[in-house]
Amino acid sequence: MKIAQISTNTIPVPPKDYGGTQRDVHYLTEELVRRGHEVILFAKKGSTSNATQTFEYESDDKSEQLDFIIKNLPPDVDIIHDHYGIVAKANPPIPTICQSHSKGVKGNVQIPVYVSRFILRKYGNQRGYAVYNGIRMEDYSFKAAKQKYLLFLGRLIKEKGVHLAIKVAKKTGRRLIIAGTLNDKQYFNTKIKPHLGNKIRYIGPVGGDRKRELLANAHTVLFTSTWDEPFGLVLIESLASGTPVLGFRKGAVPEVLRGLPSLLCYTTSGMAMKVNYRKRLLPAARRCRRYARTRYSDLIMTDRFLSLYKKIIDNNLYKIKKNTLWNQRKAVLQPAPNGDDE
Description:
This protein is an alpha/beta fold. The chain folds into two domains: 2-135 and 298-333, Glycogen Phosphorylase B (Rossmann fold), CATH 3.40.50; 138-295, Rossmann fold. The chain is 36% helix and 15% strand. It has helices spanning 20-34, 62-72, 117-122, 162-172, 185-192, 208-217, 233-240, 253-256, 268-276, 278-281, 285-295, 298-314, 325-333, and strands at residues 2-6, 38-43, 53-56, 79-82, 96-100, 111-114, 129-130, 150-153, 176-179, 200-202, 220-223, 245-248, 264-265. The strands form two sheets. The protein has a seven-stranded parallel β-sheet with strand order 3-2-1-4-5-6-7. Helix 4 (162-172) links the parallel strand 8 and strand 9 (176-179). The two termini are 36 Å apart. The relative contact order is 0.14. This is Glycosyltransferase family 4 protein. Keywords: Transferase. One of its GO terms (molecular function) is glycosyltransferase activity. Residues 143-258 form the Glycosyl transferase family domain.
């Protein structure tokens, strides 16, 4: 099968630190190639891949990026998997998935795909499909013996509930390491900075070996988001490291953790109690690792997407409109019949 993967122009593939969408694109591309499929990847400059062909965007303008894709996309592609949205909204005459890695898919596209059934139901009105994120298990270190610190990993914004993780740490008396990008300085200065000290530390964004070590050695990871999380990649990254992760019953969190219900919490007090009685109340390290491997690996994610690709192509589940933006742009970009530009 010949498959086009369309990444964003924000972060290269694969990302060095933060970049959930680009990591999904990377895992999927690599596994598809390993299984013998041809993959044409469009991504930000600086991307590295084993794709059959990799095209790096030459402009920051979305219209020019669309033209770039139209010019370079092979004519015999079987399906397009758009993680960006610019191709799907142009409605090309090729089966095209538009995957939302956050909330709803905007615009009238052929085949919307979401990262959880919760998002499909709430924002997609049950139109389209849900395919869970997957991670490469080998990218995460496993340790059965844990250290005593708690870990928060994510963007420092109000919706991620860093201030609630601080509350849990204070209730338990344990050290808390906060790692992630600082996206809201006012929130940081008012809700986080006053609590920093010997027991509560902010270490900035992390990736690579440092991130793996933090996840694998943590006593417990605190996932304190207060908004409707579309999926929650940190949940499965923590479990892949053999580390219990406690999350509030918001968004897709109960769906992702449905097989480990003891990890779900209603309040910071309940979360603190589970931290204090982890051995008695929470799953052991090997069970956490097994849960992530059997439900959320890159192998399973690839299986699900290949099944969806085949279903779409075999059953003609895509609809192409006449006079699409894709065809309009292609007509402009095509040379004159005599081979000279008009």
